[in-house]
């Protein structure tokens, strides 16, 4: 399928495959020969008997998913430029300009009061089972590392134990637990726990509750995400829970109060209900009023997250974030990770990362050139490793301060959790057992972290948190090495000149010079 950017009609994400795997029609994804009598292993075939269920990646609740589409330009189409000359941020001495000297701390916010040890955060993990089941590791690991963690949409609405009176939340179990886990393990004021709200959350008064009752300082308004251009979605396998969410105002399909639907569910005709959030309607006056309300009730920092919508919507996000003095704008491009999004939507909608992030830089620069305030910017969509982090920060420099990652941190947390379970069961896999049989032996950061934590607190740290903390430690050292090679010893010195485009199309999209055009003026000066 070299002629196609997308894989269609068969994917591990939907548990489908083609019968003639080596002979596929590129446009439709159908087998070149579709045979009468086939059991229907492909997506069209499976849709013939499971219908709308095949819209979503499977199995729900134990996976995260991201698009398989190959974009014409992506971050691999850029290389990082190093140099043999000088150093920025440290003395230009071979004894001083060593990679451990690279400072990765970032400060941002209207008062520069938010401080992270590393330039990344988790930009929104909400009501999906995969988030809830791994929250302990995510929260504690993020807090110990000194980075940010965003509690995503619909957490209160999905909480069976939430107390809601007159349509407003007055007490919670899950949101309170999520916030407290981070706060109890935060060290020296580094990092932040952020509570996000979509339209249903706003109606329930989630942000008011988080600020006034839980002491949350950072709140985030949500316009959307990169994985889909509709609201948040989950599956519900319990009839009573589906009815509860329907009564709380969510869109639940099929109607869990319909007697015919109840009978079909009870006899096993379908296994789960779908809960959907509504889409918001952006309007400047309402946005301005909401920002003012949040500030008046005590929000110290206000963020905005937007998705891979058309360029005009990105322009609105940049302008509103500037005009109303927001502290962070996160821009999540298409193809990003999710716990549940329609599979074809995830692959085929929106503006891809390099394109959207390049537009973001252009729009921010236009406002900056007019001497208008630019909030800290964060890029999200598919980031997982230190080279990608470097490229994102450099592509958006000097405006981009953070990279948003979700799927990779969740993966590290899940692996850490799984290793912990195998330790408890005395069944450590051979692949891992070569490093030892205890968490002190297996996790390479254990000795350092045990020393940092007082009163034997290390023993109470779950292995999911160790997995995330250790993954972050790898990213940090890798990023330090790349920055040292570019002779940039602090994040403030990263610039677009640290990148080169490997294709003319990548250069055209991003404004980053083609690799043989880099340093042309300096080369002429050197060679005379």
Q: Which regions have little confidence, pLDDT < 50, spanning 5+ residues?
A: none
Mean of residue pLDDT values: 95
Shape: globular
Please state how the strands of the largest beta sheet are arranged side by side: 4-5-8-9-13-14-15-16
Given helix and strand content, the structural type is alpha/beta
Number of helical elements: 20
CATH class of the largest domain: Alpha Beta
Number of self-contained structural domains? 3
The gyration radius over C-alpha positions equals: 24 Å
CATH topology of the largest domain: TIM Barrel
**Largest sheet data:** 8 strands, parallel, barrel
Helix % is 25-40%
**CATH architecture label name of the largest domain:** Alpha-Beta Barrel
Beta content: 5-15%
Describe the structure.
- The chain is α/β, with parallel strands linked by helices.
- The protein folds into three domains: 12-55, no CATH class; 56-232 and 278-528, Alpha-Beta Barrel (TIM Barrel); 235-276, no CATH class.
- The protein is 37% helix and 14% strand.
- The protein has 20 helices and 17 strands.
- It has helices at 43-50, 129-133, 135-145, 174-183, 199-204, 206-214, 239-247, 259-266, 284-296, 311-323, 343-348, 353-369, 386-395, 407-424, 430-433, 439-442, 446-452, 463-485, 504-510, 520-527, and strands spanning 78-80, 106-108, 114-116, 120-125, 148-151, 163-165, 168-171, 192-197, 218-222, 233-236, 251-253, 273-276, 301-306, 328-332, 376-380, 400-404, 499-501.
- It has an eight-stranded parallel barrel, surrounded by seven helices.
- The N and C termini lie far apart (49 Å).
- The model has no long low-confidence stretch (mean pLDDT 95).
């Amino acid at each position: 399928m070299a002629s196609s950017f997308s894989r269609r009609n068969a994917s591990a994400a939907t548990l489908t495959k083609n019968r003639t795997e080596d002979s596929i029609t590129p446009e439709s994804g159908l087998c070149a020969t579709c045979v009468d009598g086939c059991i229907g292993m492909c997506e069209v075939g499976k849709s013939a008997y499971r219908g709308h269920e095949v819209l979503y990646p499977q199995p729900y609740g134990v996976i995260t998913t991201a698009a398989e589409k190959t974009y014409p330009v992506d971050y691999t189409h850029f290389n990082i430029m190093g140099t043999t000359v000088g150093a920025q941020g440290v003395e230009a001495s071979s004894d001083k300009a060593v990679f451990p000297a690279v400072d990765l701390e970032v400060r941002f916010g209207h008062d520069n009061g938010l401080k992270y040890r590393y330039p990344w955060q988790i930009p929104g993990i909400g009501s999906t089972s995969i988030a809830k089941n791994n929250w302990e590791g995510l929260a504690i690991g993020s807090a110990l590392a000194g980075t940010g963690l965003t509690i995503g949409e619909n957490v209160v609405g999905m909480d069976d134990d939430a107390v809601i009176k007159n349509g407003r939340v007055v007490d919670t179990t899950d949101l309170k637990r999520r916030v407290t886990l981070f706060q109890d393990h935060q060290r020296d004021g580094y990092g932040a726990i952020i509570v996000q709200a979509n339209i249903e959350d706003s109606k329930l008064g989630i942000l008011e509750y988080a600020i006034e009752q839980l002491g949350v300082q950072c709140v985030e308004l949500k316009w959307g995400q990169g994985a889909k251009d509709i609201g948040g979605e989950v599956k519900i396998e319990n009839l009573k829970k589906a009815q509860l969410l329907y009564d709380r105002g969510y869109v639940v399909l099929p109607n869990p109060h319909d007697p015919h639907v109840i009978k079909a569910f009870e006899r096993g005709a379908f296994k789960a209900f779908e809960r959907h959030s509504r889409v918001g309607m952006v309007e400047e006056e309402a946005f301005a009023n909401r920002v003012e309300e949040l500030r008046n009730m005590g929000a110290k920092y206000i963020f905005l997250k937007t998705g891979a919508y058309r360029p005009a919507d990105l322009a609105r996000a940049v302008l509103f974030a500037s005009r109303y003095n927001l502290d962070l704008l996160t821009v999540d491009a298409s193809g990003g990770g999710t716990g549940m999004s329609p599979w074809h939507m995830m692959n085929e909608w929106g503006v891809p990362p390099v394109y959207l992030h390049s537009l973001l830089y252009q729009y921010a620069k236009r406002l900056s050139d007019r001497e208008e305030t630019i909030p800290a910017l964060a890029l999200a969509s598919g980031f997982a490793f230190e080279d990608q982090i470097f490229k994102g920060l450099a592509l958006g420099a000097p405006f981009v301060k953070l990279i948003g990652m979700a799927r990779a941190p969740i993966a590290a947390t899940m692996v850490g959790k799984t290793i912990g379970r195998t330790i408890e069961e005395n069944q450590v896999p051979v692949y891992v057992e070569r490093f030892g049989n205890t968490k002190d032996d297996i996790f390479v950061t254990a000795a350092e972290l045990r020393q940092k934590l007082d009163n034997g607190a290390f023993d109470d740290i779950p292995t999911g948190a160790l997995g995330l903390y250790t993954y972050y430690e790898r990213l940090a050292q890798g990023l330090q090495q790349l920055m040292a090679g570019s002779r940039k010893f602090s994040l403030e010195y990263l610039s677009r000149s640290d990148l080169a485009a490997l294709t003319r199309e990548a250069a055209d999209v991003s404004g980053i010079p083609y690799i043989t055009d880099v340093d042309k003026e300096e080369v002429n000066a050197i060679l005379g």
